[in-house]
Amino acid sequence: MSLGEGEVQIGARRDQRLTRAFVLLPRFLRTFLVWRRMIRNPFFAKRMMGTVAVTSVGSIGTSRGYAWAIPIGIHPLGFALGSIARKPGLVGDEVTVREYLSMTVLFDHDVTDGVPVVRFLERLKELLERAYGLDREGI
Question: Considering the domain 51-138 in this protein, what is its CATH number?
């Protein structure tokens, strides 16, 4: 699955116009119309916002070769993607220069236990290192 043109959430019928309209509302209206209902009804919150948040800090910190962030929000799973930096690393038995992606993952421990989180992160790391799902011919 992927986001279509102008979409803000996978599987949702909303588009960027509704999101922009929400942001333009005065704070007291946003609180009254949406936030109060989301706090009281987790199923409404899931339907409106999903369960995973992804943000990017992009090129911040690339002069030092790294960038990271701590995503804070109400989602049970959050990813903050930093910059890609070239650093020395161990590949097999030799040290070579590789590209590394800085990524911070935030889990809500009220929702998920630590052991499945570690298993998930190990599997995610394996898939990212193998570039799983990417068309290698275009690279």
Answer: 3.30.559.10
